Known about the structure:
The protein is α+β, with helices and mostly antiparallel strands and 306 residues long. β11 (246-254) and β12 (262-269) form a beta hairpin.
Amino acid sequence: VVVLMGGISAEREVSLSSGAQCAAALRKAGHSVREIDVTRDVRALLDALDPRPDAVFNALHGRFGEDGCIQGILEWLAIPYTHSGVRASATAMDKAAAKAAFATASLPVAPHKVIAPSDLAETEPMARPYVLKPVDEGSSVGVTIVRNGDNRPAQLAADWTFGARIMVEPFIPGRDLTVAVMGENGTSRALAVTEIVTDHRFYDYSAKYEDGGSRHIIPAGIHQAAYDQAMAAAVAAHRALGCRGVSRCDFRYDDTAGEPGRLVLLEINTQPGMTPTSLVPEQAAHLGMDFPALCSWLVEHARCGP
């Protein structure tokens, strides 16, 4: 098994951590493992994939690793790889495209606009509070909440470095929930619902990856009807995009008026964090599957295809 890690996205350091720990887990599970730190040098990557592995464990995060690019290279080489294929990966990474698919599947999504940074500099895109996020980044990179009394929009537009499109959504009060899904098509199943609690202003990049930035409550202590809805919605989102392997759906749960509250699907992650304390491995462990077994399961289900 070759483990691809690192990459050239804003999530490079996270990927290096995921990759190193996945490689160790795969060795513990009995696999022969090589690790490749992926850079912009595609020729070096092709050379490193010789001799041809039986499978690639994709531990890359963010652009070029999660958006269908590396999946396309592996498809061309006909090397089986973990997680979702080209089409599902590309669609999931484009938040606007993913939300269109979710809306078609009658899943609960927030209304949104996609604007240019210059639009933000000129006028308010919607009533405050609202959320600004890059259309094609992960790990909350670039996400900002604009609240009442905030005078930053023009400066945020001037400083924007995350591409030509900004997604704007109304801020949804309440709690952060996440659900992992394993499998594909009719075999896919949700694992559990985790509530994510943080003392930060929201579940941002530092809350996700700094020690003590957040804590995870599994199973989430929410109304059973909302719990069941989150599990079903995660499976439906996974299937709507044609995901395989493991994915993770993130939700906001507005219970400010009491329970059961309003569930809103934010996005799906086709390359979720993969360290022993990451959200997906925690849910798998909650059901009795340890980290080496989870990584090995992903390799056993690696394949080429859409």
